[in-house]
Write a structure and sequence with these properties.
Elements: H1 27-36, H2 49-64, H3 70-84, H4 93-110, H5 114-125, E1 136-141, H6 144-160, H7 165-186, E2 189-196, E3 202-209, H8 217-222, H9 231-241, E4 244-249, E5 255-262
Length: about 260
């Protein structure tokens, strides 16, 4: 699978608590209520939680109306609210982000045309007005301790962007495999971990070195080659864990492996 062009990264989440400890006047609530229009005269922000709740789901439904029937889009939104454990009347920035992730998963089950799906996912992503600035972490890798630092960087980005435990495990495992290949075969190199927002939310990992390169890449990826260090298993395992995988290498010219895990 070819790696598409990259853009800047996704979003970080806010902590949530039970409705009794949250107020409708939080940052997201205030902004979303304003987007839904001014409250009727005599009603201030303290009396408008229902307007806030409707504004969140209504904006999602407005996007979905272009692609799904009324019954299907209601089902997708309701399922997203349950899966994200969101109370739309008291939703904050992190809640909205989790809800959008779940809604995007639901949309993928019903929108079959790829162009339409891409447009829907993009428009849903635009509802997340609190997405943080792009972030990228670079770690110089020379030994196992550096590999652990790279794993920590990947975990940090995953937590920041509300990545599920399952995907986080896959991302951190890929970082380990790529980092150890650098230590064993090149001696030193770099791991770059970044978050992306386009064409889809993703965590991207780039492992690059100036070592001897890989002369038998296709043999390794096919599963026919076994080294005493298990290099073939490492690369093949990483490819199996990720959604996008690309290797650039040549004898004496080093190796650059770029992988992505899409977050929905």
């Amino acid at each position: 699978m070819k790696i598409p062009p990259r853009d800047g990264p996704p979003s970080s989440g806010g902590a949530t608590g039970p409705p009794s400890s949250r107020t409708p006047g939080g940052p997201l609530s205030t902004r979303m209520a304003g987007m839904a229009g001014s409250p009727p005269s005599g009603r201030g922000p303290a009396s408008s939680p229902q307007v806030v709740g409707r504004s969140i789901t209504d904006q999602i439904e407005t996007v979905l109306a272009q692609f799904l029937s009324p019954a299907v889009r209601k089902s997708v939104i309701d399922c997203g609210i349950r899966q994200a454990k969101v109370d739309p009347l008291y939703a904050r920035e992190g809640d909205l982000r989790r809800l959008l992730v779940e809604v995007k998963r639901g949309v993928k089950l019903f929108v079959r045309d790829q162009a339409q799906l891409d447009r829907c996912i993009t428009e849903l992503g635009e509802l997340d007005h609190a997405a943080p600035a792009p972030r990228e972490i670079t770690i110089d890798v020379r030994n196992e301790e550096d590999v652990l630092r790279a794993r920590s960087a990947g975990r940090e980005l995953c937590i920041e962007h509300l990545v599920s435990d399952v995907l986080q495990t896959k991302i951190v495992t890929a970082i380990s495999e790529l980092g150890r290949n650098i230590v064993r075969y090149a001696g030193n190199g770099q791991i770059i971990v970044r978050s992306l927002t386009s064409p889809m939310r993703a965590i991207e990992i780039i492992a690059q070195d100036h070592g001897p390169g890989i002369s038998n890449l296709q043999e390794i990826l096919s599963g026919k080659y076994r080294s005493r260090h298990g290099m073939g298993a490492g690369l093949r395992g990483t490819k199996a864990l990720m959604d996008a995988f690309d290797v650039k290498t040549a004898p004496g010219a080093g190796t650059t492996v770029t992988v992505r895990k899409y977050l929905g």
